[in-house]
């Protein structure tokens, strides 16, 4: 019997769905007490204060990072963290329902699916395309149900989450195509520091740097740092190391239903029958996309041969998680080592 792995298989996939959804809930909790820039500035100051010492602790063997590596990772952080989070959190602050924001962001797999073939040379099968299109139908069903409950808001606020959806797609393609040889600890540290610097500049420049004294604000920040940043963001890239862009992004279709149910329990946001049916269609879409991809799809990617030592579970990886940066070793190299 095959044992479950914390770094591959169903466990990281399920954890990604829950943790990614938690970010929308945390944003709703935080923006009830402070401005978006205040929330994000202090969130990433906390993240950086935790990430940098962790990076220094686990990075026992110094891997050489080139200037190009740092620039690419900073750009990924700008797209996948900074702009994505500003658009998502601001949308919720402006009154877009939590579940609706998650639904709009879930359109990202369709954009990634359209671009992944020509840009990254990954094959997208007919069955996968069917699943992606079915996912779009499910998103439309739930959005249609949610919009009927969102009267009184200007229509332009619903365009705000689309900005983050586009930049996250761009970051996914950039990370997958240009930066796969950078260790996870290095990439997360650079990206979080980039976001922290940007949000401090924006917070001070706009007069939103001072945090409120409300204890709920700090509780929401801890929620967002632990669950959304380290949980959701880290698990996203962890899954991307083992599976294709199409398969990982298909999991995001399950985040709207998770978020909507979560928001229903915490905030009383209603779910109509059309939305509930849409969530079921989304589940079918995810099953189609994942069924169409062979289990060893990630292993069929071109060999990754970074010009730095490969991380070990006792050196580069965070203690107790077993995360590791890995590469496919050519058979000739294995024979030579033996």
TrEMBL record:
Subcellular location: Membrane
Topology within the bilayer: Multi-pass membrane protein
Domain EamA, residue spans: 10-143, 162-290
Transmembrane regions: 40-58, 126-144, 156-174, 181-205, 217-238, 250-268, 274-290
InterPro entries the UniProt entry points to: AA-Vitamin_Transporters (IPR050638), EamA_dom (IPR000620), EmrE-like (IPR037185)
Superkingdom of this protein's organism: Bacteria
Main location: membrane
Region: Disordered, residue numbers: 295-338
Keywords associated with the record: Membrane, Transmembrane, Transmembrane helix
UniProt family annotation: Belongs to the EamA transporter family.
Name the UniProt record assigns to this protein: DMT family transporter
Organism: Streptomyces nogalater
């Amino acid at each position: 019997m095959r044992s479950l792995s914390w770094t591959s298989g169903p466990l990281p996939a399920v954890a990604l769905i829950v943790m990614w959804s938690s970010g929308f809930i945390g944003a709703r909790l935080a923006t009830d007490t402070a401005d978006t820039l205040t929330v994000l500035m202090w969130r990433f100051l906390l993240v950086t204060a935790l990430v940098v010492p962790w990076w220094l602790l686990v990075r026992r063997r110094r891997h050489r990072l080139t200037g190009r590596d740092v620039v690419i990772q900073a750009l990924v952080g700008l797209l996948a963290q900074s702009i994505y989070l500003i658009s998502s959190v601001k949308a919720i602050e402006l009154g877009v329902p939590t579940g609706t924001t998650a639904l709009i962001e879930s359109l990202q797999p369709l954009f990634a699916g359209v671009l992944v073939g020509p840009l990254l040379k990954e094959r997208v099968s007919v069955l996968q395309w069917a699943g992606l299109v079915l996912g779009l139908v499910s998103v439309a069903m739930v959005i249609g149900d949610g919009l009927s409950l969102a009267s009184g808001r200007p229509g332009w606020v619903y365009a705000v989450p689309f900005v983050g959806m586009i930049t996250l797609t761009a970051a996914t393609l950039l990370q997958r195509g240009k930066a796969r040889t950078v260790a996870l600890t290095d990439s997360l540290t650079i990206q979080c520091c980039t976001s922290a610097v940007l949000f401090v500049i924006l917070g001070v420049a706009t007069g939103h740097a001072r945090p409120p004294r409300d204890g709920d604000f700090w509780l929401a920040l801890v929620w967002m740092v632990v669950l959304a940043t380290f949980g959701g963001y880290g698990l996203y890239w962890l899954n991307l190391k083992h599976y294709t862009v199409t398969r990982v992004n298909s999991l995001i279709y399950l985040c709207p239903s998770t978020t909507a149910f979560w928001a229903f329990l915490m905030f009383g946001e209603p779910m109509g029958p059309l939305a509930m049916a849409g969530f079921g269609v989304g589940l079918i879409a995810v099953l189609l996309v994942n069924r169409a991809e062979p289990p060893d799809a990630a292993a069929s990617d071109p060999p990754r041969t970074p010009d730095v030592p490969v991380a070990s579970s006792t050196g580069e990886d965070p203690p107790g998680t077993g995360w590791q940066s890995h590469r496919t070793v050519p058979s000739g190299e294995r024979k030579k080592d033996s």
